[in-house]
Amino acid sequence: MKVAMGQFAVSREWQANAAVCTDLMNRSQASGADLLVLPENVLARDNADPDYVLKAAQPLDGPFVSQLRTASRGHLLTTIMSVHVPDGAQKVRNVLIVIRDGEIIAEYVKLHLYDAFAMQESQRVNAGDAVPPLIEVAGMRVGLMTCYDVRFPELARRLALDGADVLVLPSAWVKGPLKEMHWELLTAARALENTCYVVATGECGPRNIGNSLAIDPLGVVIAKAPESAALVFAELDPQRIAYARSVLPVLENRRFAPPELQPR
After folding, report:
1. Whole-number Cα distances in Å, 73 to 25, 42, 258
2. Confidence band (pLDDT; 50, 70, 90) for 21?
3. CB-neighbour burial class of residue 235 (10 A; exposed 0-12, middle 13-18, buried 19+)
């Protein structure tokens, strides 16, 4: 599988962000990519106005997602991103969507909200209540995660036990002391402990680190983006997964039952 990681700084205007996403989709398709992973909440952002996520949110049949669905029509490229969707009075949901050939083929509502490091995502966002599905891309099974989810190994392990070969992670990883080290350590750990590939795309810009990563099942970084806008490619090889799981059979050797989602 050829994957693309398209990182950029999300702006305040959804039309500008839709144009950037469409361009990244077109470039990825032209380069022969099977999968494009974009950042978290690519619809709109205003770093000076935390309530802007409420004002800018759109339903999945709104103009932003509809424009990207139209851009994907007639292509085999699978594109993954997250957007904020209205969810009752003064709240939204952080919904990861998977688009292919004009359709949304899978959705996942972010389970773990970023209530850490002096931030409070739950003030404006409602958490999901379902384990994300697996999707198939180019013969490989892909598990879905979003940003802060990476700090919770139970979700990655559950997806690996469900059959995931690849874990994807759209993110908007906020800058701060040790935060880039956390990002690199956690993504590598989720890959290595589950003998899966991890494809983690981070938003760049004044608030977030960028630094998108593709990591192989033995924890080796095989592609990496800088702190600025970039489109980076990596090749994922099922034989590498088979080799990793033959020499490091952690999924077989485990002594614990598969993690189960607890009700809130």
Report:
1. 11, 20, 37
2. very high
3. exposed
Tell me which residues are annotated as active site: 40, 110, 147
Q: How far apart are CA 160 and CA 147, in angstroms?
A: 17
Write the CATH number for 234: 3.60.110.10
Kindly tell me if the per-residue pLDDT of 263 is higher than 90: no
Q: What per-residue confidence (pLDDT) applies to 30?
A: 97
Number of domains in the chain: 1
Residues 242-259: tens digit of each pLDDT = 999 999 999 999 999 999
Residue 123 DSSP code = G
pLDDT score of 136: 98
Residue 54 lies in a domain: yes
CA dist., res. 219 & res. 197, Å (int): 8
pLDDT at 88 over 90: no
- Three-state DSSP at 250 gives helix
Domain housing 150: 2-253
Q: Which residues contact 31 (CB under 8 A, 6 or more apart)?
A: 2, 4, 233
Establish if 212 belongs to a structural domain.
yes
Strand order in the sheet with 197-202: 134-137, 140-144, 166-171, 197-202, 213-215, 221-224
